[in-house]
Each structure stands twice: as C-alpha cells, then as structure tokens.
Amino acid sequence: MSIDKETGAVSAGPVFDILAGVTRIATGTVLIALVILVCGEAFLRGAFNYSFGFAEEVTGYFVVMLTFFGAALALRRGALFQVNFLFGEIPGPARIWLKRLFIVAALFVCAVLAWKTYGLMLSSLERGKFAPTVLRTPLWIPQLLMPAGFAVLGLFLLEQLLLTARKFGKPN
Fold this sequence. Notes:
Layout: E1 2-3, E2 10-11, H1 14-48, H2 55-77, H3 84-87, H4 92-127, H5 140-143, H6 145-165
Antiparallel strand pairs: 1-2
C-alpha cells in the first residue's frame, strides 16, 4: 500500500498507479480537445457564421468519456459524494464492512453494465451500424467508451476493496 505522489490518493499498488496515470492523461487530453473544439466552434459560428458540422457529435462522445473516467478518478481519490454525517457515526469495524458491502454491490453493477454495454457494442459492430451524422461514425467506436468506462471504474472499486482488506491507518 502506498500513496500516489501526484494525487495523494491511497494506492493498492503500482498497477493501479499506472492505470490512474493513463486514465488521467487520457482524460486530460480529451478535456483539452473538448475545450478547443467547443471554443473553435463558437468562434467560427460567431465570427464567420460557419460550423464544423461534426462538433456536436464529437463533443458528445468526449463528454461520455470524461464522465466515466472522471468518476473513476474521483472514486480513487475518495472525492465522490458520501453521507458523511451518517457514515462517520458508524463504529470503525461496522463502517469497514458497510464500505466493503457497498464496493461489492458496486462491482457487481459495474460488471453487469460493462457486460451489457460490451454486448451492445458488439451488436453494432456485427451489424455494421453507423451514426446518422456528418461523420457517419461506426457506432461501436463511441459505444466502446461505455464498457471501457465501467471496466476502469470497476478496477478502481477493486482497488478500494483491496485497501479495506489491509490495515492502514484509520478506516474511511
């Protein structure tokens, strides 16, 4: 067990640190691209009455990716919402078991949703479906973001479960 030097998050090992680093880089890159695309679209529409035509589609894909990966990073840092006034009143051992129960339930939900969204993505791939947009994006490409997002979220949930199994400082 270590502490991630970049984020201050408690880590269950270097594999999770590398995964978090790759997720942060991907999320940061997409966020920069999203800002550039939105600002460029707004500038072109305002100044020249011209539109890229594909900006709405691509920004939608970017927002989905940012939502999934951002939630995973927030989970890792312990920055997601909690009902602290209730959770803090529960005695330490019961709090750990309640946290474990929540993590196992969340892992189950992530696994089911990853499996179902992966099936949706495979269906679109097999049927050769395309978005009815300017780019005619094969639907499996943006649909791949959902199972990937659930998988990353699930891996960080697994890390949290591993951290609750170890005795390290005060239980959260």
